[in-house]
Amino acid sequence: MPFEFVKTEIPDVILIKPKVFEDERGFFMETYKRPDFEKAGIKGEFVQDNHSKSKYGVLRGLHFQKEPYAQAKIVRCVRGVIYDVAVDLRKDSPTFGKYVGVILSEYNKYMLYIPRGFAHGFLVLSDEADVIYKVDNVYAPDHECGLIWNDPDVNIPWPIDNPIVSKKDQQWPTLKKLVERGEVF
Predict the structure, then answer these.
(1) pTM of this prediction exceeds 0.85
(2) Among all residues, which ones are annotated catalytic?
(3) Which residue from 7, 41, 119, 164 could staple onto 62, CB 3.0 to 4.6 Å apart?
(4) How confident is the model at residue 1 (pLDDT cuts 50, 70, 90)?
């Protein structure tokens, strides 16, 4: 199998380690193979690919879309290094409010599968980073939502003290507010 699927501390979030074939010419790897992913429990039809380029210290997130436009994602950093984070927003989950954080990079070539019901964000740790991700539902701006990146109840240990965060991402509510508003899954 060209992939190793590793369950994280939140078992529904899966770290994907592709088999990389390298030689003096470069490398080759498969990045997605539906039968293998389905066998590992990653089901669904991916309908949109996104590409983000950011500079050092940029923090994007923590984003999600509300139903009926919730999205599962497969995230990959194709240039540079990022700290990638998924926060469980499924109110009936035993890991509600917990997060998984992993390093994704052009060097390790790992990917992270994030199911629906999670907020997602990343922090750029290299000079620049290109991040691509597949989603299983289209972007719907009217259903976009987020969780504030520095929520003290979630307590993500971001590896940079003063990240560059957009005005929009600075305005997202805390987890407590999302619960009060009924904006969790």
Answers:
(1) yes
(2) 63, 133
(3) 119
(4) low
